Every structure is written in C-alpha cells, then in structure tokens.
Amino acid sequence: MPSVKLIGAVPKFVSKEEHTALVGSTPTSFNDIPPVIKHKEENVSITLDPPLEGFSAETAIQGTLYVLTSVLAFISTTGVGFEIQYPAITLHAVARGAPQPSIYCQLDENYGTENGAADNDSITDMRELTIVPQNPDSLNPIFEALSECAALHPDPRDEEDDLDDAFIDIDESKFETFNGDENEELSEVGRAALAHLESIIDDPHNLQPELDDATDINENFEPADEKTEEKELKKD
Predict the structure, then answer these.
(1) What does pTM read for this prediction?
(2) 8 A C-beta contact, residue 88 and residue 112
(3) Side-by-side strand order, sheet with 89-95
(4) Which residues on adjacent β-strands are paired with residue 39?
(5) Domain locations along the chain
(6) For residue 64, which phi and psi values (nearest 5 degrees)?
(7) Deepest in the core among 10, 25, 77, 144, taking most CB within 10 A?
(8) What would the mean pLDDT of 117-143 be, rounded to a whole number?
C-alpha cells in the first residue's frame, strides 16, 4: 500500500478551541471527536518523486496544506488531494537551499504492508515529498506542526524493536555460582568486602569496642574465683 493516499475532500477537523469544548462536554465516545488542525498553509506547491499515479504535476502546482493531528493532507485547487499517515514519514526537515526553500520529507512506501512490518531491517521503497510554501516564513511553523503531530504517532515497528531488545539470552555457563555454607572460610576478597561493610555500618550505641580496647579488657580481666582466693590469702 503506497504511503500516499488520494482523497477528494479535506478530512474533517476542528480547531483547538472546538476540541477543548467537545472534550469538556463529555462525549459518548472520544473516538468520534475529529482531529485538531495544527497548521493550515495556503498557496503551497507539491512535488512527489516518484510521481503518484492519479496525481499529475499540474495538480501539484497550487493547493492548501493541512497539518492535522491524524494525517498530513494536501488539497489542490483542482479538488484532488492526498493524505499521509505520520508513521510513514521517516524524515522531515527544512531545506533552505536552491531552487526554493521547502520542507523535505522521505516516505516509507512499505508502511502498512505485511513485508514492511515484518522486517524493519530490509531495504524499503522510498518516495520523496517536497512542500514549497509561497511564503518562506511559513517553513518553521509547518516544520514545528509536523514534528508535534509525528510525535503523536510513533512507528509501531520501533516499539516492537525496543521490546525485543528488552529480552536477551544469558549464557549461565559464564557465571560461577557459590554453593558453599556459612562455615566455609571467606576468601581474601570476601574478607575485604566484610571489613568494608563493618566500617560503614553505624554503631550508635558503641556496642562493638575497638581492637585495642578489647585487648586491654582481656588483659585486665581476672576471673572472680582468682580474686576471691587472693583476698582469702591476705586475711590469713
């Protein structure tokens, strides 16, 4: 299915203010609300390469561009036009060089086809679209509106690729599993890790004495029985 679809009338749309009013009225179905128009540009000429069957060069000379939240549409003064789904637009940019300042787009001709959705890495057919407004100052507003609407319609194939990347196969043979028990002696690395943990653990009640203090305590400690015997000898 070509990325460009011929139409004979402007798709139905509403302004931002009308859209706000419709949403605020709590409609039966939000799907019935028409898309919002982000930019309208009159006196625009179009070039498609390769040409689109049923859309002649004479038809593309002058018309009106509609940047809607649903599609990008163009209606010629002859009454013939086309619309493009945003995921089919793989590239859009401002071209300020010769022969005229324009909006340059690349269209994926395989968008919406079974082959195009099945293999995103395969070589795809491409169609070039050049939008030339009579007023060069309109380039930036058109580009910004295109960017905003394109962001509302990400390519589902890109989302599938991101999902595939989230799952990877891990070779468990490359990992060593510890099967020992708590009685096994720690390795040098393990002892260093344990020492680090002990150094950063807070001891608010000072329950763990320093090594020097512990040594002094052991040296000065005398069993109760020895002290009793010493006192009895002094009495005798």
Answers:
(1) 0.64
(2) yes
(3) 4-7, 81-85, 71-76, 63-68, 37-49, 126-133, 102-108, 89-95
(4) 67
(5) 4-154
(6) -120, 135
(7) 10
(8) 82
